[in-house]
């Protein structure tokens, strides 16, 4: 399993508000045919799944603001692809929480 953190910033839109674009991204993720988990945060979206699936989804999400009228899109991506053991969003959080409870 890989984890991708994704921030998409549409540029030259009718408004400075990004929430309509964020809502569109969440709808695409909710309807994704790929087996993924995702979590919206105040500054980005985190997606968990097979790397090949995640890269296809990232491409669709990057194109979305263009379809909604943006003239330019800046997308930042972080990929955590751990292969020595199973990793997930939940496992990463539990690992930190365990260390905090000591």
UniProtKB/TrEMBL annotation:
Short name of one Pfam family for this protein? Thiamine_BP
- Provide the residue span(s) of the region labelled Disordered: 77-102
Query: Which domain of life does the UniProt lineage start with?
Result: Bacteria
Compositional bias, Basic and acidic residues, is annotated for 78-102
Q: Which residues form the Thiamine-binding protein domain?
A: 4-97
Q: Which residues cross the membrane?
A: none
Renumbered to this chain, the signal peptide range is none
**SUPFAM superfamilies noted in UniProt:** MTH1187/YkoF-like
Q: Which InterPro entries match?
A: MTH1187/YkoF-like, Thiamine_BP, UPF0045_domain
Q: Which family does it belong to?
A: Belongs to the UPF0045 family.
- Which NCBIfam families does this chain map to? MTH1187 family thiamine-binding protein
Its recorded name reads MTH1187 family thiamine-binding protein
Q: What is the phylogenetic placement of the source species in the record?
A: Bacteria, Bacillati, Bacillota, Bacilli, Bacillales
């Amino acid at each position: 399993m890989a984890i991708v953190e994704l921030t998409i910033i549409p540029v030259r839109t009718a408004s400075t508000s990004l929430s309509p674009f964020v809502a569109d991204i969440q709808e695409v993720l909710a309807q994704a045919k790929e087996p993924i988990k995702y979590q919206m945060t105040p500054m980005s979206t985190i997606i968990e799944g097979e790397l090949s699936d995640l890269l296809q989804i990232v491409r669709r999400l990057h194109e979305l603001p263009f379809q909604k009228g943006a003239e330019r899109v800046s997308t930042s991506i972080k990929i955590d692809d751990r292969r020595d053991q199973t990793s997930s969003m939940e496992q990463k959080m539990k690992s930190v929480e365990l260390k905090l409870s000591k």
